[in-house]
Amino acid sequence: MDGSAERPEADGVEPLDADGGAERPEAGGGAERAEAGSGAEQAGVGSGAERPAPGRSEALPPQAVEALTAALDTLRESVADLRFGLDLPGASEARSAQADLLAQLEDYVLPRVRTNTAPALIVIAGSTGAGKSTLVNSLAEKTVSRTGVRRPTTGTPVLACHPDDRKWFEEGALLGGLERVDKPSPEAGMRSMVVVATEKLPQGVALLDTPDIDSVVEEHHDVAHRMLDAADLWVFVTTAARYADAPAWSLLRLAKERGARLAIVLSRVQPKSADVVLKHFVRMLTEYGLGDIDRFVINEAKVTDGRLPDSEVTDLRLWLAELSVDEERRAQAVRETLNGVLDSFRTRVPALARHLEGQVAFRAELRSDVETCFLGALSEIDKASKNGSLLHGEVLARWQDFAGSGDLMRSLQLRKRGRAAKQAPERVLAFKAAIRTGLESVIVAAANRATEEVVARWRHRSELGATLAEGLDRPSDNLVRLTNRAIASWQEHLSELVRTEGVAKRSVSKLVSFDPDSLSLIFTVAMFSGANGEGVPHRLVTALLGAESLRGIGAKALSDLRARIGMLFDEEAMRYVQALDSAGIPDESVATRLYQATYNLEVAR
What we know:
The chain is an alpha/beta fold. It contains 19 helices and ten strands.
């Protein structure tokens, strides 16, 4: 409709041999309605006929509005709590759907429920160069939106309304996230909306000129869809040469999914090809389930000062006037769209919940890998502590040196009145250090295997797992230091157990004095030498403390050692948990709250 733009000819549309039922407009006629079930009677223009609304026909009482608003607020909070931090298949789409849902709740649904008597917002949408701005200017009888050959032309959304409605659109919550400005400017950009008043538009309806739905500028595309999500009625503008293009039907599909009240303007129709074009177009709409929507035809005409001749928009102007003066018709259209949006939540919200559940499930799988690997490492140490494999190398050499040098017997000597036992020899200290080092090496080796296995499992699951595992293929730098401290503390605890629960309960303690460190080392060798109960350490400890004490103290000592190692491994495992937590995945309770919020909304409706 832009007179300076290059226009494709309608003759290029391939005709289909179908019963479209469309009537050829008279030569030189103005805006016409394609017959085929979409005449003036169908649109309600001049007929007084009412199309039955699929939703409610009466206004909601205040109590119902309050309950519905509360349910919607809860739903909005639940949707806002969602985090799709893991880049799983579909995550990007889920984030986009979440943003769209939140924007629609805040820009349209909540404001419309709270103020259901507000003017109706009619969004003019369409593909690049369809002539949306020209149509808005023509209906407003004023150049409110810029037109031209440059694409995209509309850089800032422009809303045109009656002066009596201007305050509501300037101060109302509808599209509240957009800054209101008096005129477009480079600084305003797409996050603003120009509000223009004109007495040529009827009161009660407003026209919003949007960026192109197929704009090459991604921000324009996003804002256009945001405008549509906030509309009470959609007027889709396409041309005789481009009505079959994919962007047009993508938008029509979206309107159908959302249950939006819709009208279509087919512009730039050449009189010589009008019959073929209209038949084909009507057939496509009918096959798509949109055969009964309001349709308007605008012939190819000269555009002057960004506007069409008045005769070309007569039917559209009459349609707007009917919406303006017939409050019930306007309210019905608004209710249809609002109910359509609310109906769409029945599938859109659960779809978000299911994707969140997928994120939670994947996180649980990765978390399970961590638990399995570190529990396996702990199990390896348990086996080593029971099968004698801990007593090898330096530990075994130090024990043989300790036992064969006579220090073992000197650590056990007859009590002499008034004299304390001698201090443990250096071999005792060396043996104690060897045990500590031996345990430390076993623990660190098990932690190394666990970290390597976790990373291998994560990498095997997906590329995302490999990304999350970066830098986690070996234990933390402070594991050796923390392990050394934990084993030293355990050895002190074992000495205390031997002192308090061992010899003190035996009658032999009246005759024998002992060095607690030495006896605890002997006890350690007895515990770790295997379950066969043979050998010098077993016989010696059994003789001094008794078999029952050996079993009791041994069970406590091993349980305490296992707990200390478990805490070390828990600290190591937390590094992987933190990597998962940093992705921002909430637990499954968030999905549950989302389902509950959806159910509560249905109850409130």
